[in-house]
Design a protein that fits this description.
112 residues, alpha+beta, four-stranded mixed sheet, 2 helices, 4 strands, 39% helix
Amino acid sequence: MKTYDFHYSVHEVDGKLFKLIECSTWPRLNVQVIDTTPDRFEDDLNVIKSRSLCGYSPHDKTFILKHAGGEGNGELKQSNLDEIFDGMNEIMNAAVKWWMKNKKTLNTTHNK
């Protein structure tokens, strides 16, 4: 049975708060949830990617999930928990597909 260890924290970068949810598995998946608005989303995403804070990478298994859950008060509420859970399901499915596609390469690289 697999266990998933979720951690929630808020980080400030250049005056902006970034809500970070980490899902620790093997291979480890980091999910960064951006507290943003539809108007700011593309700009915020570009800033984060330019600082290497997130964005999908096959090396560190990092994915990005848009957080559109309303007020950014640093609390997890039922309204955004459902959204986050749905996003986690999508992320886990994407991770499994990626792993199935790349597992032979990973195993070959790991065994060398």
